[in-house]
Amino acid sequence: MRSEDIAKLAGVSRSTVSRVINNYANVPEATKAKVLRIIEQYQYEPNSFARALAGKRTDTIGLFAISMNERENASRIYQNSYFGPIVDLVVDTANSLGYYVLIHTVYSPGDFQKIKQAYQQKRIDGGILVGTQKDSELVREMVGQEAPLVLIDYDISEIMAERLNKNHLAVINSMDYEGTVHAIEYLIGLGHRSIGIMKGRMSTFSGRERYVAYEDTLRKHGLPLQEEFILEGDFLKETAYQEAERLAVSGIWPTALFCCNDDMAISAMEAFTAHDIRIPDDLSVVGFDDVELAGRMNPKLTSVKLPIHEMATAAVEKVIALCNAEESAFSTLSFPTALIVRESCRELKEHE
Amino acid sequence: MRSEDIAKLAGVSRSTVSRVINNYANVPEATKAKVLRIIEQYQYEPNSFARALAGKRTDTIGLFAISMNERENASRIYQNSYFGPIVDLVVDTANSLGYYVLIHTVYSPGDFQKIKQAYQQKRIDGGILVGTQKDSELVREMVGQEAPLVLIDYDISEIMAERLNKNHLAVINSMDYEGTVHAIEYLIGLGHRSIGIMKGRMSTFSGRERYVAYEDTLRKHGLPLQEEFILEGDFLKETAYQEAERLAVSGIWPTALFCCNDDMAISAMEAFTAHDIRIPDDLSVVGFDDVELAGRMNPKLTSVKLPIHEMATAAVEKVIALCNAEESAFSTLSFPTALIVRESCRELKEHE
DNA sequence: CTGAAAGCGCTTACAG
DNA sequence: CTGAAAGCGCTTACAG
Fold first, then answer.
1. Would you say the C-beta of A38 is within 7 Å of strand D?
2. Of A340, A244, A291, which is closest to residue A80 (Cα–Cα)?
3. With an 8 Å Cβ cutoff, is A73 touching chain B?
4. Superfamily designation of domain A60-174+308-335
């Protein structure tokens, strides 16, 4: 069934059929109704490729999850508590707005090609980029393509430094700096003076923000930065486990440990527990993200909640707005975090 | 940059360019190399829509997650521990095989349209259907379309009953019956005689299988089916919580409860704990699926592991084989489950 | 208000 | 081995 067939059946031309499908103004109600009836009756659907080829939208957005460091694992984004929800949320939001979503994960530099191809082959109207390793070069290239693009978790200053037209670009962030300050000051308020950190991946905007906020806050409160309590977790479960174990074995540790994401916090707690370091009695732990597991484990993890729902929703709305040229200015949105206090931190007594 | 441009640059015709892109046999190496060099140099990518329109593959598969009962929630598949991993695994597998994946969730009968459209508009080469409510009518309709289709968790006998050509169809299941028998017999082996069940959604193949296996096994071992210990959890967390709470309040409960998925098992445990019923001291619990949380909670949940990784991978491989017409017979694959014993069940003493 | 025609960028018989 | 041409199914100026 092609538009030609519908045209014949309705006694009009293909042009008219196309006009009613695309809801043009200058079609009389009667003609419109007639055509619509036939379309309905035969359950006709215009071929999306032909439409796209003739210059129409594809009604699909791309979602690209970049996870360069986790190549080895068989199931990869799957292993990460951060991507799963983002993917699901983006799909749900886009679908409910009438868009399909085309997904591709990238684990190696070569996979980047797939992103470019999706744009060049015109498979999508616009795209969303999440994940680590969104290096400037890639972004510059994408921005150069003039296709709608939304970046989640990206350093705005890096973009501002580029001399490009970025009217089809938007950036969505969470207020990680503030969230981290909040968490550290909460620990300080509980009486902690010796606070360590399990760092995230520093190639990431959020990884850097969280670390800098940690340093700033300690400094602001006149607390020392202790090299030996700065662990390199890289946002990864396994790495965090090893780092925590190393600390446990060393025999000395801080009274509190701020972890730059929950995956690492949870792994660290497992490592500590395995070495008979009790949480929160012997060590207080705070995480970041507030994944589902945080509220279900034992002890329940105190964590900074990432506004992941808002971020994913906003990302979808932004690309769509950009695709429809409803918006044409570079925009940036940052959503607030919230400290969710649970059971993994304890108050230090005066003399401790 | 179009194939025409490449042709000019290479000093050949569009036909030849097309032939080298599609790797036709009858192009001399020299010509091929020349064309390839230009393509490489200009980073040319053929327009995917034009190709598809001219009869080529789209190189994308559809993934449709059906979740009709969970309409209300803001973030829906997201809430379900089953879909997330499937989505991620399918995307990962398909991507690594060079396919894009187009995702759409369906929450209402109207959303079904989207699935049909994706096929009719030729957006995908083939598709995978997961989730509940895969009613015969839908399947009949899809099978009628002659497009490659893989069904995950579906009753084969229902398909066999249809008088359709199903050479573009495949079904992927897990051996839930055996898995359930295994779990129930494990409980019986621990000395349990009073075993309840938290049922899944009965509109689902796996929901029915697990329930039937439960009944059969009790019967086989001469144990009574106690109406009051048969709970309707519907595979949903909230429903399961309420049902468990109802049981707790009633004052009498079985010595063991088999839950048809982990989401329900975990919620039930929370409800019991809230009512001072200790797991496993006062009540043993077994789940199904073996989601990540199962091994991380306290006490750790004993559960039947769903071969979700194998299922997702097989589903992708099947659709692709079907798309490439490498396979043309109706096929069905069923993967084994495994009982993962942890801490949520205890042995009953002789006199209990 | 509406139809005939050109065009979107490919692929693939058809000739040669 | 390779080019000219038709065709895939739409949309959209262009005329009228």
1. no
2. A291
3. no
4. Response regulator (3.40.50.2300)
